[in-house]
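To the structural biology subgroup,

Please find below the input and predicted structure for Peptide/nickel transport system permease protein, which we are adding to the shared reference set this quarter. The sequence is reproduced verbatim from the submission form. If anyone notices a discrepancy with their own records, reply to this email rather than editing the shared folder directly, so we keep one authoritative version.
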Amino acid sequence: MIRAFAAGVASLLATLLVASVVIFAAMQVLPGDPAQVMLGVNARPDTLAALREQLGLDQPLAVRYWTWVSGLLTGNPGVSHTYAVPVSDLIAARLGVSLPLAALALALAVAIGLPLGMWAAARRGRAVDRGVLIVAQLGIAVPNFWLAMLLVLLFAVTLRWLPPGGFPGWDAGAGPALLALVLPAVALALPQSAILAQVMRQSLVDVLAQDFVRTARAKGLTRGQALRRHALRNAFIPILSVLGLQFPFLLAGTIIIENVFFLPGIGRLVFQAVNQRDLIVVQSVVMLLVAIVAVVNLLVGLAYAAVDPRVRRAA
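Predicted structure (tokenized):
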């Protein structure tokens, strides 16, 4: 198990190294000059040259890459070209909105999707099962930004139960802040809950057809008891993979939702940084998302070992 963990950490580090090279190279080939964007099209050449030197854009690519990577390792990837503040401070402030939003959306997706999948699997072939599958297909097909606008029209404009957008900040209290995140979290969670419901249903249907479940039924257990005591633990193995992918996806998916609801999160920061050619912010945020995905994949592998004895024995 220790050797498997060490191999996972080595793979994680290699992934981050390759990703840093790819992300940095991609940022360099994008059209547009950050200094030109900041000063405007009528800027004088000597002013442009002075600003490029101030921003470090006149240095060789290898030097700029090493400066950025070494800054990432120390928690200070550089200074934003647009805001003139450390990128780490910008990201930390925006994560205070995006992380709670993604966590709330994931909690809602699990609370909705898993019970629906279990309910459909326990009644396979009945009207409930077919209804859950239809609803899940609709949930996957509907774009979350369109769903977000419908939620705003219903709950904010018509019923006036929830705020239509904006974020009061955590200084205003946990209640108003969480209230502002409800509609964005629901818009993010519903498509993901549909995916979870489908995966949970199919996984449980497959497990319920196994010999050990039939043996449990033959010993006198009801279908529900066999499902809860024997099938559920084994059915959760593929769910771990889906959950491991959903949290980074939800964090990255806030780019659209945060712009719909005018939330000052990491997604809106990336959107603004791309428009303003603030490359140091864009590449640092993308690198953060890649690191989160890699770490979550490592944790999912460890969770596999905890849930599945076969993985533990192989490790």
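Summary notes: The chain has one domain: 87-314. The chain has 13 helices and no strands.

Regards,
Lab coordination
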